[in-house]
Amino acid sequence: MACDAADRDALRALLAQHPVNAVVHAAGVGDHVMIEDSDPAGFAGSVAAKAAGATHLDELLAGQELDAFVMFSSGAGIWGGAGQGAYSAANAYLDALAEHRRAHGRTALAVSWGGWAEGGMAGVGDGEEMLRRRGLPPMRPALAISALQQALADGETALTVADFDWERFIGPFTVTRPSALFSDVPEAGRALEAPAPGGAEAGNALAAKLTGLPAAEQDRTLVDLVRTHAAAVLGHDGTAAVEPGRAFNDLGFDSLSAVELRNKLTADTGLKLPTTLVFDYPNATALARFLRAELLGSRGAARQEQRTAAVGDEPIAIVAMSCRLPGGVGSPEDLWQLVTSGGDVISGFPEDRGWNVEALYDPDPGTPGKTYARDGGFLYDAGDFDAALFGISPREALAMDPSSAYCWRPRGKRSSGRASTRPP
């Protein structure tokens, strides 16, 4: 019988005609669309295929004793995935629905699957290859079904079943931020601690080659090396698309491709390079300068023009000074006025942080997960940051620590002469 589970009325009619004693909900739409390119209708459609159908089945069968209520969730709801915002949210909902059903005494099992081989949602060919590249080799269906049978027999509520290539998976997964999700998995810990494969001989040869070149040629050689590997990782035929001064984020690098570029450069330089390389040095020019310094050290400066530094005897002059502090302090003058007047900078919680202050408050200091304070010293305009003023892309700005972004604001005000870095 065919029916759209997201259509509640159609599903009700079907269940009335064909009573069931078990449910296996395996529907899903795996569109890969970045949030910035999605629209409400497309997002809702991707979510509805899983979430709405599962909700309707749960509600329409609420009064019926079922042998099983199985929902095929996805690892995307556990560890996420680029272009899978709606799909990840829908699968996380299935996991929560399973817990909800169990809490109300009803049977439920949500399995967050990795990729299936031989025609799963990841498909074949390019789909399976992408999974392998991410460290998630597709599972044989027989193995997956065996795991499902075991989960049902054990009375599990929600679990993840996936095959991991930890050396490929864990580095990109933790490259932009630490995660405790796999902290108790020994294989993941060993993979994180293992050094990237390096090429000591290749690195020595490259360093020797660079030592014989002028500084400008050293930079050009390393920029070409970075651009060549970056283009290969991104799938370009040549280096034209990788402009030396363009941010890696804008070129399309993500955590996976960042680690792949690191590995290629490690093999060519013999250096122990961090997985955060493309985030620490955000374009080919900056990365090449870092590599030159690491490869050559003081030798890199040996062939540069020698300049005699003039010794000055003038006193140091403070040409600019700025600060941001609680209580609306936006300048040294404000701070001095606050100190001389004996002002109080303690105030209520900001209303633009997404904090439910009433829900968080508890007068007992020993209550876990609560705060017994209702006031504090806050920077109320911490969210105002003009990333474009500093040449920072929107994607980089979102990933910045708010305190780091806030430190740039006084600098922008002093260097540009603008009254504020508040976005127009």
Structure, described:
- With 424 residues, this protein is mainly alpha-helical.
- It has 3 domains: 156 residues, Rossmann fold, CATH 3.40.50; 102 residues, Orthogonal Bundle (Non-ribosomal Peptide Synthetase Peptidyl Carrier Protein, Chain A), CATH 1.10.1200.10; 85 residues, no CATH class.
- It contains 18 helices and 6 strands.
- Helix 1 packs parallel to helix 2.
- The longest helix is centred in the N-terminal third of the chain and has 21 residues.
- The C terminus is likely disordered.
Briefly, what is this?
Keywords: Multifunctional enzyme, Phosphopantetheine, Phosphoprotein, Transferase. The protein is mainly α.
Q: Can you give the helix content as a percent range? A: 40-55%
Distance separating the two termini: 56 Å
> Strand tally, please?
6
Compute the average pLDDT.
81
Task: Give, in order, the helices and strands.
Answer: HEHEHHEHHEHHHHHHHHHEHEHH
Task: Provide the CATH architecture of the largest domain.
Answer: 3-Layer(aba) Sandwich
Q: What top-tier CATH class of the largest domain fits best?
A: Alpha Beta
The count of domains is: 3
Approximate shape: globular
InterPro entries: ACP-like_sf, Ketoacyl_synth_N, KR_dom, NAD(P)-bd_dom_sf, PKS_KR, PKS_NRPS_Biosynth_Enz, PKS_PP-bd, PP-bd_ACP
Keywords: Multifunctional enzyme, Phosphopantetheine, Phosphoprotein, Transferase
Organism: Streptomyces avermitilis
Protein name: Carrier domain-containing protein
